[in-house]
Amino acid sequence: MNDDPEQLDRHVDHLLRNRKPERMPLPDEDALGARQTAAMLRAARPGVGLPSKEFLERMQRLIKEWVGQESLPSLPAARPSRRALLLTGAAGIAAGVAAAVGIDRLRQPRAPGARMALVESGSWQSITALAELPESTPVAFRSGGIEGFLIRRGSQVSALSAVCTHMGCILNYSKLRDRFECPCHGATFRTDGQPSNQHETRLPALPALQVRIERGQVEVYTAF
Amino acid sequence: MHDDASTDVAPFASPSRAVRLHQAAGAGDQEYLTWAYQTHVTPIYQYVYSRVGNRPDAEDLTSQVFMKATSGMRTDVSVPQLRSWLYRVAQTTLTDHWREYYAEHTGALDEEVTRAPAARENAGAVQRVDSLLATLPDNYRRVLELRFLRGYSVRETARELNLSETNVKVLQFRALNRAGRERASTS
């Protein structure tokens, strides 16, 4: 059996409609390669390839269950303190990789190093030229699994995670209202990262990412 | 309920902070582990999605990854260890998926899986696509851009390129096969 344009187009059509493609034996590696390339292209369209809020919520619940089942009863210990719970809970629901490099830069503006022992293999990734950034208007970027915003004020550039600290959806920037808005449950954040509306409980601020300017290029420290 | 965490940017839990706190507070491994897994759902989903290109498969496979990963992992792990473990599980899950779906001719997969440097996967996906497209002849690139990046239907693409729908499908077929071979030879 040979692969053919009609059959491949049916596969493509399923991907473009976000449906499961049909199962079928493929004749050769080219046919497989074409389908894998189609998947890669499909995922490159902006805004595609992020989990839905329903899926994220379901996964949060499932992971809790699964981890619960696996953890040994021989660790009876210690209910975590309220404070530890508050903090881990906040990030847990939040974060995507963003949290993995969410550095509280405001308090400790330090280069990655000792302090970031847990981001062992982090690296600086060039995002854009400083000259490309408009004054005071956040620009979205994606690098190393990080979704974020760069904001230039004069010669200063800051970077914020674009992952909503509520359930982990990716925020949009509304130019009209000059704020970040979550498409999932409506949380909003000011451009300094502070939550600007009351959700069920007050949300944590968006974590700041480390950013530096090297030879006119804006670089962000990412986990990978 | 609200302590200073709600008013100060700094206490947002970066992993290092969370782990230290977790240790200091003698917090249960369970909470820490749950948190650590939960923070990786979005990146693992993105990684899987870029390999299968559709939501139902991406959701099924992502949840399989976490189900397998949570059942085989020690509890005393750092975030990077957990992350690379998750990517490894994701890779084997994807290999199984292709094998099961498209039965034969998955010989090339093994190599890809052992080679892939886990965590870099989401990095520069868009640049990778751009540079792949740049290797293609104009008409191949154009049909892929219209179909995938702009979401045109075959009919719309046909109108745009002034071709019949059949010819669009043929062009798309050749373009994807060519791009697939380019991808295999450069990666």
Widest sheet, order of strands of chain A:
2-3-4-8
Helices and strands of chain B: which structural class? mainly alpha
As residue ranges, the low-confidence spans of chain A are 72-120
Gap between N and C termini of chain B: 51 Å
Average pLDDT confidence of chain B is 75
Oligomer: heterodimer
Strand fraction of chain A equals 15-25%
Taken from the alpha-carbon principal axes, the silhouette of chain B is elongated
Q: How many H/I helices of chain A?
A: 5
Strand composition percent of chain B: under 5%
Describe this protein's structure.
The complex is a heterodimer of chains A (224) and B (187). With 224 residues, chain A is of the alpha+beta class. Chain A is 28% helix and 21% strand. Chain A is built from five helices and ten strands; from the N terminus they run αααααββββββββββ. Chain A has helices at 5-16, 29-44, 53-70, 82-94, 97-100, and strands at 123-129, 139-143, 146-153, 156-161, 172-174, 179-181, 188-189, 208-209, 211-214, 217-222. Chain A has a four-stranded antiparallel β-sheet. Chain A has a three-stranded antiparallel β-sheet with strand order 1-10-9, with no helix packed on it. In chain A, a hairpin with a 2-residue loop joins strand 2 and strand 3 (146-153). With 187 residues, chain B is an all-alpha fold. Chain B has ten helices and no strands. In chain B, helix 4 packs across helix 5 (79-101). The model of chain B is unreliable at 1-27 and 109-123 (pLDDT under 50).
